[in-house]
Amino acid sequence: MNQDPYQPPQPAPHLPPAFGSHGQRSIKRLKRIDPVIAGTVQAVIMAAFGLLYVPFGLLMMFGGFASGDAGGIGAGLGVGLAIMIFAPVLYGLLGFLSGLLAAFVYNVAVRFTGGLRLEFEDEF
What we know:
Blueprint: E1 25-30, H1 35-50, H2 54-67, H3 70-113, E2 116-121
Antiparallel strand pairs: 1-2
Helix pairs in contact: 1-3, 2-3
């Protein structure tokens, strides 16, 4: 047995092919997703995307101030603040509802399909 000690060990011949040189692999089936947790995760992700609209709200506000017109200042301030406040909140709310619905639909579909098969590998 003249193996290089710096190379990972090779799998034994009697082990199934799911055992590799980088770790043990296992296949698991996803049977259920908690809808509230899925909704919460989706809400956080979508609220973060909603924060991308904050610079556009600031531009609307500065555009209204730059116009010098009293109506433009009020409109720019109002629309800018509305975008900065309501975009993340609305995106978060819609994200929660879509995550909740997607998890519910998955949980119903898994009864007929058996669930997703996911492959994991343990790292050493």
